[in-house]
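anyone seen this seq b4? input:
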Amino acid sequence: MIKSIIKNNLSTETWAGLSSKKRHMQSLFKQSKLDPNLKNKNKILIIGIADYDNLGDHAIAQAQRVFLEKVIAQGHNPQYEIVEVPSHTPLRHIERIINNDDVILFTGGGNLGTKYGFLSDLYLPIIKNHPSNKKLFFPQSYTFNEEGDSEKLMNTIKSIFSKSGKNLTITARESKSESLFKDTFPQNNVIMTPDIVLSLNLRSKSNEITHKSNDITLMMRSDLEKTMDIELEKMLISKLESKFSINNTDTVTSYEITPENRLKELNKKWDEIKQSKVVITDRLHGMIFSQIAGIPCIVFDNYNSKIKMTCEDWLKDVDNIIFVDSRKEINIDDFTTMVSNLIGKPVPQFDIATKYEPLAETLKTFIK
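predicted toks r here
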């Protein structure tokens, strides 16, 4: 209550500054596993990887590493060491290992903006301190406050970004974000590719499951990004439960996940999805997990339309990944019929090579 009153009476930049200082004070007591000797090595830093409970973000981290390893293998200089830096790593520990020849990559998702603390705590200081280093944001959505950041805060961000010029590449993961990034940061290089998790492929004949234990896997969010009416969702689920076997799960766990055990946890979730005939979700990575596993999916939009734009930009020609706008009227009987019709239907593989060419080619110019 008191926190809300204080926040509502402060400017955006003042509140952001206070929040950042609080997180900085807390970070003074945190240690890091980063070896100071890394300062003297040729390396590619991936900053801000997940070290918390969101499997979607862990999938981003896993896909980034796999993608980068492929790019390095295709080049002529495999001597770069990939160093993943977890999101809760204090800035001072990161700065002590960066040298002027390092390639600096920032993790993808929705953290290039003011919704989370990544930009002010990690990204801005590093971009400011290393304007000459080659830097790139993996595929991102534009998440600056829609009600408008204060002019002072936004001007600070623009000024820091502009000093890196074309040494800073921003990868948008859908066309709406691409347009906003180009308008906001005209001095920087802006490209567009899909969310990096779509570059993974979980399919192989050796692990195809012929007997599915569940008709439906349901992954519905319960946070502020939700757009579906709660009562409508309850009615839909009740109707589905009367006809199908349902596995109710999520991409957010009830426990913290470390980078070291992320692949184990991801495989558990991916195996769960493979045991399903249809996935129903309003999570972006719930839909993407379905696509890369080859499972039909019905997906509802979220609050900022990143799901709608991903479908329109990258999946509109993909059979059996179906977008439903939850803001519009939904007939429950028609929806149930749609689910029935999806069972047993194939989902074509994603065209990874073509769709990610701008990202792969940009990274190749960094690694010489």
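The first helix runs from residue 2 to 8. DSSP finds 14 helices and eleven strands in the chain. kinda curious what u guys think
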